[in-house]
Amino acid sequence: MDERGTTVYVAWDESLMRYDFGPNHPMNPVRLDFTVRLAREMGVLSLPGVRMVSPDTADDELLTSVHNPDYVQAVRDASADPARMDLSYGLGTDDVPCFSGMHDVSARILGGTVAAARSVWKGTTLHGVSVAGGLHHAMPGAASGFCVYNDVAAGIQAMLDAGAERVAYVDVDVHHGDGVQAIFYDDPRVLTISLHENPQTLFPGTGFPHEVGGGDAEGSAVNVALPPGTGDAGWLRAFHAVVPPLLRTWKPQVLVSQHGCDSHIDDPLAHLALTVDGQRAAELAIQALADELCDGRWLATGGGGYALADVVPRTWTHLLAIAAGRPISPETPVPESWRTYVGRLDYGLAPLRMTDGADAAFSDWEDGYDPADWLDQAILATRTAVFPLHGLDPHA
């Protein structure tokens, strides 16, 4: 394999853990600490071709490629004086409390994702990973859902500005990727696909199948609203029934993915029932699609995930290893030194292996579907809304 095929650009610096809404907030940056430590102790970050790069802080020109200038100024003001929270911009809510330095660290996360995106698009690296990124709820003019700046959208926009004509975005977070969808809703160059818990039962209340893109971009937004309780078999069935056929028809030049792992059965904020094994299977499927359709060009980010020690570190270490071309066997033991570190920080008994013991098997849509089944109804609703817009038969 050539050098390009063995390289992964990892946007990371410990300063990114300053993205911290406080000790009682679900999005505790310790999950990043645990992830990077686990990946390092398992040898992932020292694999040949893995390059860790400390991100630069994005300037206003880059931030305003996806955000309104007045919003960026509001974030800067709240960052300098957290008492100056502005609820009209979503700043100072329970979801997005203001903290000192908020602008700088948020802009640095965005800068890291954009740098990884540019490296992938230019071909100086095959894969890019930004585990601190994936802040997909931030809107052009407002913070939302733990997200200040939308680094994913900025990464996509940077590739468009560099000449990309077809960028596909696949979001597997349990919450709808509403910010990314909103920013590109009328842009036919970007295909956004989000698989998430039904918005009738979970924040942000959007992401229904009928949301298919606006104007000349009809068919560019795809939403799979999954019933609460959906586990590995159902989730992977839905993914394979929707994502590969659309991507193969649309033929993206580069694949961007958001890997929020709050779809796990142990996550405290949502109601799906995936395992680490199901999430790993999704990562492998996305990587394979990037290889098949995009000459390997793939940018992956983190996202949600609030089972801080049990789930996030293992799922994202699997992601980093897959991006590096060296997937970790699910049965691999977790290093005892890492487990000791987790226990010392009082996060309970850490998992023993890189698996939850699930097989991540699923039945293929092409083998038939049950119109009375809630999951199949959800899949068919998406296929019916979007597939004809791409010349595909939703019932095939």
TrEMBL record:
Its UniProt pathway annotation is: Ketone degradation; acetoin degradation
| Location of the Histone deacetylase domain | 25-321
* GO process annotations (BP): acetoin catabolic process; epigenetic regulation of gene expression
> Transmembrane residues, as ranges?
none
Going by the UniProt record, its keywords in alphabetical order are: Acetoin catabolism
Which parts form a coiled-coil structure per UniProt?
Answer: none
User: Which is a Pfam family this sequence falls into?
Assistant: Hist_deacetyl
Keyword set includes Transcription: no
- List the molecular function annotations (GO) for this entry: histone deacetylase activity
The record's family statement is: Belongs to the histone deacetylase family.
Q: What is this protein called?
A: Acetoin utilization protein AcuC
